Amino acid sequence: MLITERLKEQKDFSKVDTVIADYFLNEDNEWAEKSLRQIAQLLFVSPSSVVRLCQKIGFEGFLDFRAAYLHELDYLSSDFGEIDINYPFDMKDRNTKISGKLKNLYIETIEDTFSLLSHDALAQAEGLLVKADDIYICSAGAPSDLARVFQEKMVKIGKNVIIDNRLDMLFYQACYAKEDSVFLFISYSGETETLIRIAHKLKERKLQSIALTSYGGNSLSDLATVTLYLSTHESLVHNIGNFSLFPSVLFLLDVLYANVFSRNYEKHLADKIKYTKEYEKRRKSYNPLLSGGEKNKDSN
């Protein structure tokens, strides 16, 4: 849940908590330049009351709350170009006009997803995948189909990736998976009940998990070992067709694959080409653009 939503929800808030929360929700954000003591004096409360509110919504204190909340406000106010993310084209658009708008939406989505990437989180996720003998994909609906592209790429460099569309089976796999297994969750909302049950089981067994989910915090990201954020501007329901979600998922999966590949670049490249040639002996094309592509050995 976004910090903004937690402040608005005011669950189990005292009257003092409500006063402080309403101040932080001020659209002018005048609090951003003030110290903890200045805010407390302005609201006629103690500094410890401000700290307790920050702790109540999941932070250690005021400083980490301020940093996270400012980052969130900056992200939420970021301009997604001139594109309506949920309705990128209208009923009068046709052909190249539609394709041009979708091109721009894809570009904006990838840039937005990239902006949310954390170096440390990505490095941690990469390390988990490199060490894992078995990688389980946990997702409901279309994202599990997108993950099959990731599965195919990983299998070709020797990584075992398991996808099961039956979530009940994934729960039992979480019960019996080996200690060096990693579960990769893909969930935009981060609140799918069965996926949360699987994540709880993994945490209970101290198994590692990676979550690809929406920015702002949710039940899944709270349970995962590490979280990578999807572009989070698209409505869950009110949209034409998840035009932003799917490219964001594919981008993060490709980033993960590429980082695993780069850990042992020369071996992975040699093995992939060797076994592809061995299996696809009869596959050919007379198009020089398809038949070339051999890497220059002198290039870095």
TrEMBL record:
A Pfam family the protein falls into: HTH_6
Gene Ontology terms for molecular function: carbohydrate derivative binding; DNA binding; DNA-binding transcription factor activity
Entry's Gene Ontology BP terms: carbohydrate derivative metabolic process
Domain SIS: from-to ranges: 125-266
Keyword hit for DNA-binding: yes
Keyword entries, A-Z: DNA-binding, Transcription, Transcription regulation
Residue span, HTH rpiR-type domain: 1-76
Family matches, as SUPFAM superfamilies: Homeodomain-like, SIS domain
Protein name: RpiR family transcriptional regulator
Annotated source species: Trichococcus patagoniensis
Lineage start: Bacteria, Bacillati, Bacillota, Bacilli, Lactobacillales
